[in-house]
Write a structure and sequence with these properties.
The protein has 531 residues and is α/β, with parallel strands linked by helices. Helices cover 39% and strands 15% of the residues. The protein has a six-stranded antiparallel β-sheet with strand order 6-3-10-1-2-7, with helices on one face. The longest helix has 20 residues. The chain binds flavin-adenine dinucleotide and NADP nicotinamide-adenine-dinucleotide phosphate.
Length: 531
């Protein structure tokens, strides 16, 4: 490949300020010595088609979901309050809180957002750290201390969801064969206004309801009427049964709700244990208890029902990466949903939304859904740019959508998919479709990693390393890289594998390879949708 000078062209899709910044960055990273550039290998990666993503001017070294909270907080030490608050977030930019990690932290620090419990991946750990940071700074000082962020595209909340609409639930077909340990469903919703509302890469928010059996057991334990009206955490007033089904988070009782139980426990040792749980003492038991677990474990707690319900957090919708292209399935949205089921303290527990979709939603019934636009997870603007998609398990979802979309638009770019799951015979999700895409050439390459078909685990990143030479050639030719699925284990290991491949094939050190990867991400050529 010939050398291309590291200057962002005038006709690239950047503002003059962004172009100047990028040119400065490239000059700083690469210098002007073309020979040196060739040995570094960086120019061939960055000289690929012009990136389209907005540019962030500030580094967030803690912005890594795999990094433990205390390490993230250390990296943010000495930074302004909103940055320390950002370091306390789950670092997924998943949008479940309605913001990005950065913008949620800024809104809290400025006093515009009062709720400190919105970060789903961060959970209680994040909520507690935010509480500590907020209480260490008086409210007035907080607001005054926070500089208004510069108005660059990357910091304004880009996640405004579409208005909810009642879509018809068409079914949840099991994708795993009989005998699989997993239960992954292909879910279809229909509504004529759905397909115009989304593009591939977006997610769908689903308002599910709690399990009626668990709700009935809670009401029985409370010993009250199911039809008495109560005020709900979402501001509505409903019969107790409906409140518990539709409006309250009974899976993860809030600290306030646990405090209500503690304050109404007649047995002092139960009260102490509940108080320790509410305050998050390390080792406080029972860990990961849902509301029913607590009511059963602390029989002396007799809370006033109104008070308890109002102290619970509200039941939030769940997000799912959209698995269909609106061009291929007008009026429909498809999802790929892993059903969460596990045993704890002798009870089978089920995920609220995944359990609802797999077991309780009735075909033809209306369900409230909304489209959540993607934050930096989209196909290249240029249809001829090659793409590499890495999506084991439910991570396949957006890539089915990407492939359908590229087929529908006749995009000429090459497509490479790395997919994996437990067993080929049982868990090859969308096998017929993917094999057909491969046969007819839409899928240029399909590399598979079935982890439990042999004694040693084989994961997607092992296949990537096996194909390092070709993968590096694709990256050099301007391919965009996409990763979707599990954030904590898979995405971290895939990231490490990519850095290793850039280092080995480009003949550079690991830290240089990591910088190259970070630069690819900044340029919009390495995008992740992980959860
Ligand atoms: C942007 C985005 C896209 C997503 N896309 C998808 C997708 O395409 N497909 C998909 O399936 N999911 C996807 N998710 C995840 C999805 O939103 C839900 O989090 C997931 O379905 C679980 O929700 P639930 O209501 O079924 O379970 P919940 O009721 O929320 O229960 C889940 C909780 O149960 C607990 N738990 C689970 N397993 C165990 C265990 N073995 N032991 C102990 N505790 C356990 C954990 O605390 C976990 O947080 C996505 C998330 C985001 C943010
Ligand atoms: N509690 C459970 O037992 C259980 C089981 C399945 C899924 N889940 C949860 O369900 C959700 C969705 O599941 P999913 O279908 O998307 O994915 P998944 O079942 O978690 O994983 C899909 C594939 O990725 C493999 N994998 C595991 N660790 C990996 C790593 N570090 N790097 C690369 N690949 C790795 C898995 O192998 P192995 O599983 O063989 O290691 C499997 O083959 C996830 O949040 C997951 O945590 C839980």
């Amino acid at each position: 490949m010939s050398y291309i000078a590291p200057v962002v062209p005038d006709n690239s899709p950047f503002s003059p300020a962004q172009r100047a910044w990028l040119n400065g960055l490239l000059a700083g990273l690469l210098g002007t010595d073309a020979a040196a550039l060739t040995t570094a290998g960086m120019e061939t990666i960055l000289a690929a088609p012009a990136p389209a993503a907005p540019v962030e001017s500030e580094e967030f070294p803690w912005h890594d979901p795999a990094m433990p909270l205390d390490e993230r907080m250390k990296l943010a030490e000495g930074r302004p309050l909103e940055r320390r608050m950002m370091a306390a977030m789950g670092q997924l930019d998943c949008g479940q809180c309605g913001y990005l990690c950065q913008t949620y932290a800024e809104a809290v620090a400025r006093g515009e957002e009062k709720s400190l419990t919105r970060c789903v991946p961060g959970g209680k750990e994040t909520a507690r750290t935010l509480k500590e940071l907020a209480s260490a700074t008086s409210a007035g000082a907080v607001t005054a201390a926070v500089a208004v962020p510069p108005k660059i595209e990357a910091t304004s909340p880009p996640l405004a969801p579409s208005a909810p609409l009642l879509a018809q639930f068409e079914g949840a077909l099991r994708l795993n064969r009989e005998g699989s340990e997993k239960d992954t469903r292909h879910v279809v919703f229909r509504h004529e206004n759905l397909s115009p509302a989304y593009k591939v890469g977006d997610a769908l928010g689903v308002h599910a309801t709690n399990d009626p059996e668990v709700v009935a057991a809670i009401i029985e334990r409370l010993g009250v009427s199911a039809s008495g009206e109560v005020d709900c955490p979402d501001g509505t007033r409903r019969a107790l049964r409906e409140a518990l089904l539709e409006a309250c988070d009974i899976g993860k009782p809030s600290d306030q709700a646990i405090e209500v139980l503690a304050s109404r426990a007649r047995d002092s040792s139960e009260a102490d244990r509940l108080q320790a749980l509410a305050e998050g003492y390390p080792g406080a038991e029972p860990a990961n208890a849902d509301l029913l677990d607590l009511l059963l474990a602390f029989p002396s707690a007799q809370p006033p029902v109104e008070e308890l319900i109002l102290a619970l957090a509200r039941l939030e919708p769940r997000l799912y990466s959209i698995a269909s292209s609106p061009k291929t399935h007008p009026g429909e949205v498809h999802l790929t949903v892993a059903t969460v089921r596990y045993a704890m303290r002798g009870r089978l527990r089920k995920g609220v939304a995944s359990g609802f979709l797999a077991e309780r939603a009735q075909r033809g019934s209306p369900i409230s859904v909304f489209v959540k636009p993607a934050h930096g997870f989209e196909l290249p603007k240029d249809p001829n740019v090659p793409i590499v998609m890495i999506g084991p398990g439910t991570g396949i979802a957006p890539f089915r959508a990407f492939l359908e979309d590229r087929r529908a638009t006749g995009a000429g770019g090459k497509n490479w998919l790395f997919f994996g799951d437990q067993r080929r015979e049982l868990d090859f999700l969308y096998e017929e479709e993917l094999e057909a895409f491969r046969r007819d050439g839409l899928l240029t390459r399909l590399d598979l990693a079935f982890s439990r078909d042999q004694a040693e685990k084989i994961y997607v990143q092992h296949r990537m390393r096996e194909q390092a030479v070709e993968l590096y050639a694709w990256i050099r030719d301007g391919a965009h890289l996409y990763v979707c699925g599990d954030a904590i284990r898979m995405a971290r290991d895939v990231d490490a594998a990519l850095a290793h491949i850039l280092a080995k094939q480009g003949g550079v050190g690991l830290s240089e390879a990591k910088s190259q990867l970070a630069e690819l991400a900044r340029a919009g050529r390495y995008q992740r949708d992980v959860y």
